[in-house]
């Protein structure tokens, strides 16, 4: 069950497509539908069934910087949560394209790490670039799951 470079790319592509789907669903059908799609995306991409996911969202801070459960991740992606009042919903920002650029990757057996840049392009054509690290592990069925997701805005010199 060794992970391949192609699987890492496919996982990032699926993650980006999920982000776009969340945004479009929010625009077309509102927050409840976006929340349902985001739940599906999280279930498909992340390893919450394997244990805690180490998730540090791009725009989080204070006591809620790190999200180790699905409820915290869902709030980050769609906002509208009383438990996480600072979350504005990164996934509902009108995303239309997601591109990745690899800085490096590490693969050993059923564990793979990737880091690089993710460019999210919104419906107005504005791009948000984030520094991103994903850690992946294959589950018992051989499905690649995100078990580490760290994201931050690039350091400004």
Summarize the structure.
The protein has 157 residues and is of the alpha+beta class. The protein has one domain (5-152): Nuclear Transport Factor 2, Chain: A, CATH 3.10.450.50.
Q: Specify the biggest β-sheet.
A: 5 strands, mixed
Provide the number of structural domains. 1
Number of helices: 3
* Pattern of helices and strands: HHEHEEEE
What's the total number of strands?
Answer: 5
What's the CATH first level? Alpha Beta
Question: Could you explain how this protein is built, in words?
Answer:
It is a single chain. With 157 residues, this protein is of the alpha+beta class. The chain has one domain (5-152): Nuclear Transport Factor 2, Chain: A (Roll). It has three helices and five strands, in the order ααβαββββ. It has a five-stranded mixed sheet with strand order 1-5-4-3-2, with helices on one face. β3 (111-122) and β4 form a beta hairpin. α1 (5-29) packs antiparallel against α2 and α2 crosses α3 (70-78). The radius of gyration is 15 Å and the shape is globular. The model has no long low-confidence stretch (mean pLDDT 96).
What are its keywords?
5 strands; 5-stranded mixed β-sheet; single chain; 3 helices; Nuclear Transport Factor 2, Chain: A; about 160 residues; alpha+beta
């Amino acid at each position: 069950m060794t992970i391949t470079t192609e699987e890492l790319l496919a996982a990032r592509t699926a993650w980006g497509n999920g982000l776009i789907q969340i945004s479009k669903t929010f625009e077309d059908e509102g927050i409840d539908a976006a929340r349902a799609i985001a739940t599906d995306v999280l279930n498909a991409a992340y390893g919450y069934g394997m244990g805690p996911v180490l998730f540090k969202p791009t725009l989080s801070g204070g006591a809620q910087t790190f999200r180790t459960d699905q409820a915290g991740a869902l709030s980050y992606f769609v906002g509208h949560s009383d438990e996480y009042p600072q979350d504005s919903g990164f996934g509902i920002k009108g995303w239309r394209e997601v591109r990745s650029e690899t800085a490096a990757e590490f693969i050993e057996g059923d564990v793979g790490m990737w880091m690089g840049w993710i460019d999210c392009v919104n419906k107005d054509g504005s791009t948000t670039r984030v520094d991103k690290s994903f850690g992946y592990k294959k589950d018992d069925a051989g499905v690649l799951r995100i078990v580490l997701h760290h994201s931050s805005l690039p350091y400004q010199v």
